[in-house]
Design goal:
This protein has six helices and no strands. It is an all-alpha fold.
């Protein structure tokens, strides 16, 4: 499970400084659809990030923007 979540956009956008794009809601989905060399691979992570970001909406509402 840890290996599967190690590249998850939801985890990266919340844990790595500067990866949250300053948006409060669905930062993992936004991280997955950004332009970059690995865009094709990160699109595969999009469904998982959508589910995780939806479950973490209450946390995001209290936390504020991820910078």
């Amino acid at each position: 499970m840890a290996l599967l979540l190690s590249g998850c956009g939801s985890i990266i956008s919340r844990a790595v400084p500067g990866q949250g794009h300053g948006n409060q809601y669905y930062p993992g989905v936004q991280w997955d659809v950004r332009d970059g060399a690995w865009r094709v691979i990160t699109i595969l992570d999009l469904p998982l990030s959508l589910v995780v970001d939806t479950l973490l909406l209450p946390v995001d509402a209290q936390h504020g923007p991820y910078e």
